[in-house]
Amino acid sequence: MSWSPAHPETVFTYGAPQLKFGPGAADEIGHDLGALGATRVLVVTDAGVLATGWPDRVAGVIRESGLEAVVHDSAHVEPTDASLTAAIERARADGPFDGFVAVGGGSAIDTAKAVDLLLTNDGDLMDYVNVPVGGGRAPSRPLAPLVAVPTTTGTGAESTTICVLDVLDLKVKTGISHVRLRPTLAVVDPRLTASQPAGVTASAGMDILCHALESWTARPYTSYDRKQPDERVPYCGSNPISDLWAERSMSLLAKAFRRAVRDGADEAARGEMALAATFAGLGFGNAGVHVPHANAYPVAGRVRDFRPDGYPDDHPMVPHGMAVALTAPEAFRWTFAADPERHLAAARLLDPVGSHGGSGRGGEPRDVLPRVLVDLMRDIGMPNGLSAVGYGPGDVADLVEGSLRQQRLLATAPREVDGAALDGIISRSMQLWD
Amino acid sequence: MSWSPAHPETVFTYGAPQLKFGPGAADEIGHDLGALGATRVLVVTDAGVLATGWPDRVAGVIRESGLEAVVHDSAHVEPTDASLTAAIERARADGPFDGFVAVGGGSAIDTAKAVDLLLTNDGDLMDYVNVPVGGGRAPSRPLAPLVAVPTTTGTGAESTTICVLDVLDLKVKTGISHVRLRPTLAVVDPRLTASQPAGVTASAGMDILCHALESWTARPYTSYDRKQPDERVPYCGSNPISDLWAERSMSLLAKAFRRAVRDGADEAARGEMALAATFAGLGFGNAGVHVPHANAYPVAGRVRDFRPDGYPDDHPMVPHGMAVALTAPEAFRWTFAADPERHLAAARLLDPVGSHGGSGRGGEPRDVLPRVLVDLMRDIGMPNGLSAVGYGPGDVADLVEGSLRQQRLLATAPREVDGAALDGIISRSMQLWD
């Protein structure tokens, strides 16, 4: 390890929502909101999830418990300052609310966090957005209870304290980050992910895997300088608790990931993937993620005309999990030197019987984990590198520049990241297998 | 498994306090209480812990953050209705308070839960005590933030939603149990356990071990009938999350327990024991404990003249962890049939290299885990069975009767427990090794 702080950190923090997990859990939300003291509840979702019927079903069980419920399909996929402001204004017009439910993916959950924040605290959205883009203000009052009901296995938004948004005028992705934004209760009901097509399961699964693997390999909390209490951040680096969640998430993925992609009706595999997603979220929600997630911003954001299977084909996109995955093998080949044993342990967790490239036969130790990842990506139908989603050698500098903007994420990497390192990782990620 | 419910449970719940862990964590409590909105804080402790200086030091850091702080040594070891009522009345007289800190073992933390409950909600203590002893009333209002600062590694009270008390007139041990009683934040600072004598480390460590082992072997949540949302209890049986904490706790104990007893100055071992205690608490705080903890009530409660090393010698006592441990080997020999693989896995976690009786050489499979436990207990100076703390064959019926009163705990056992089963376990626990 290359870090040698003068006064090493000795303290780590861990926070998580309360959790209700299992088929049927979503039918108890009315009772849970009542126990949390809510009387009038806003259900936040997006138009796509609304069409599945689940948000109205959740509103129904809330009403059966004697509470009022209003449904807004006000979440925008990849929230922007404009979409969040519109969602907040719509909520204010229909308010007051003393409880919130988010039904959907990360976008719906993050939108609900912003709506809850601005309906319980004064000011405007930009007051709370991270500096330098916004005012970086901390909420002065507790938020109302927020129940997060993820419908895609992967984002981990149900466990985190951040709301990610694009500020359109500035063309920048930033966020609002405060411990009060963490949902009160996460309700993970695998029935809500039952309709995921194989391509979505594959991309979302790679997001889960990278949450686990990036928090597992994140810079250790003890490698930072001792923080003052008011300097503590939600992502404190890898620690004994985030390690535990990451390890178990990887073991579940080893067991269930290929099966869940192969057969969407395999309920056991789907349940294990939902658990893996929850565990990975509980881990990275405290440790942080790094290089693959930083790279995913420009890889997704600068898409030209790639249209993946299983997603709406009305616009080009690189799904988030796929964007994360495409540079992961090379990112972990580069981070290997920071802690070889940890990378080899991850390979063993992901490939316990050594049948997927992890047996260590032949090659350098630093190639073992990348080989396990590439073998998996090929099996589940990921594109063969950045070139397969439309990027070429001429795009490397642009992608590096976009990744370098994600300093908040790169700060969690186990080695100091500079442009040259990213250039190498991204260049070598153009094609992942022959 | 002998359970075959008509409609098996599909849902489990998981709750935990936020956590701050590590040397130095206790010095940040003022900041943390401020962030939680507190302005005037009551620090609850007992006379023994007060003498260590830590409660006043904590009150000092609270005042440095600009908050008011008052210290009460109002906790009684093994709280009673009388001691809790006195603590509540003293707090009311010095109130109001909008934040609470407990510095101490389970008794101080449970006392603070009761004080917080009765200062934020109407009524009297007995209104909230579990039926049939009390009124079983649920708190109608949220409690004020409670920061739990354990000074003994073991109790897990910082993670649980219960307050245990003796009702003196009825000579019965009961509790108050509600999710609102769970502390908001647990601050685990291994410096606060640095002065523990070896005998205390040994007994407290056996309590940690039994928390982990009992929640790991507890009746699985899927073996119960499907509950309605308002029937859910804090202890839902073993589940994938409590398993995770229990497993890791056992691995940490395998590494650190003997070292921590042998050398109280071994800081690494002490840190690992504090982490093991925290993890075990997070596990059993959701899954539950069973036979050894049920037996511990009469074993501790009916003591005659045993005086253990490392504890004040002004009165006879069987320390809680020791009382739990003494029937554990025989309890796990009896529960073995419910899930042999799980018992063997526990033996491997506690004795990974097979050097402490867990190698499985010779004997029946059901003897492997008991042999690992007995080997450990001998090494760390536990008494050789119930006879070594003063009980004889003539006491068995009385101990069985006391254990049978703990139906709330016995309900979590992986086999149906009756008097005959307890008679066998207790009789065979009189002497554990030759």
UniProtKB/TrEMBL annotation, chains A, B:
Stated family: Belongs to the iron-containing alcohol dehydrogenase family. Hydroxyacid-oxoacid transhydrogenase subfamily.
Catalytic activity as recorded in UniProt: 4-hydroxybutanoate + 2-oxoglutarate = (R)-2-hydroxyglutarate + succinate semialdehyde; (S)-3-hydroxybutanoate + 2-oxoglutarate = (R)-2-hydroxyglutarate + acetoacetate
UniProt key word Ligase: no
UniProt keyword Transit peptide present: yes
Cross-referenced CDD domains: HOT (cd08190)
This enzyme's EC code(s): 1.1.99.24
Record key words, sorted: Oxidoreductase, Transit peptide
Domain Alcohol dehydrogenase iron-type/glycerol dehydrogenase GldA span(s) in chain numbering: 18-190
Protein name per the record: hydroxyacid-oxoacid transhydrogenase
Domain Fe-containing alcohol dehydrogenase-like C-terminal positions: 238-427
GO MF: hydroxyacid-oxoacid transhydrogenase activity
A Pfam cross-reference name: Fe-ADH
